[in-house]
Amino acid sequence: RMETDCNPMELPNNAGFEEDSDYRDFEGTDVKDMRLEAEAVVNDVLFAVSNMFVSKTLPCAEDVAYINVETRERNRYCLELTEAGLRVVAYDFDQTDERLQTPYHETVYSLLDSLSPAYREVFGNALLQRLEALKKESQS
To answer: Mind telling me which PANTHER family this protein's record contains (predicted)?
Structure first.
């Protein structure tokens, strides 16, 4: 059952983000495109979860993007990414539930750390391996 709490009237007229859209003009400024930010978040921690990808169903904009994540425990979440941080907005892919009042996390690491013990273990092990490699490098 696909269900989103999105009123189509709230979407900007150029929700298709055509190539010739006005968003191109923002490249030199501080305005962040949250879709790019979301892709970077996914690339950062994909190795430590079962599945993670930017939603293609929910609307992305300058100020918001949605990321689907499945933890190694097989729990599914839809995350909202805004300037305020990341938070869980649903317990399934491509959905939002406005009744959920979950806290914002400043980083994806903090959010996943709170949701997934397996993430914590995999991420911790990767960190240890990296430190060991650096240690060996500095000794040679």
So the answer is: GSK3B-INTERACTING PROTEIN
CB of 2 within 8 A of CB of 95? yes
Q: The whole model's pTM is what?
A: 0.73
CA distance 129 to 106: 25
| Side chain identity, residue 114 | S
Token code pair at residue 104: 């914002």
**Architecture (CATH level 2) of domain 34-138:** 2-Layer Sandwich (3.30)
Distance of CA 111 to the CA centre of its chain: 10
The residues with which 85 forms a beta bridge, in sequence order, are 82
pLDDT digits (tens, 9 = 90+) for 73-83: 999 999 999 99
**Number of other residues whose CB lies within 10 A of the CB of residue 32:** 14
